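Study this protein:
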Amino acid sequence: MRDHPVLLAVVPEALSREFFDEASRALLQDAAVALGGPAMLRVDSFPAETNLDEVQVLVTSWGLPQLGAELLDRMPSLGLVAHTGASIRSFVTDEVFARGIRVAGRAGHGTRRRGGFAGVHPDPPAPDSSHGPRDARGHLA
């Protein structure tokens, strides 16, 4: 088992209680252990002092800072961003997709549970998507 978190939830405590019932929290804890890490780490904001080298899954909510190169460099193992809200526009950058990180969210899907994840996006959204205009390579214009 690793010493550092592999599943990081940057979700304020109040929202965490609202989004994740006891069974959902248990599933997240089980996922962290299945990934070879200690229990899931839930924080209100990105911890400056915590080693994030082994974070593989990042669960997010509203108010997250942009996932730019500097923050992503702290999480070189990151493979999935799972967002509890609808829009990822404010924090998912081209750098996320350039690194091959998958993004899951609830946008456009009628999930019943507020914390449910509707889809995984392995590639940048198509140029005609609601995430804004794209250039020929699919990057935000």
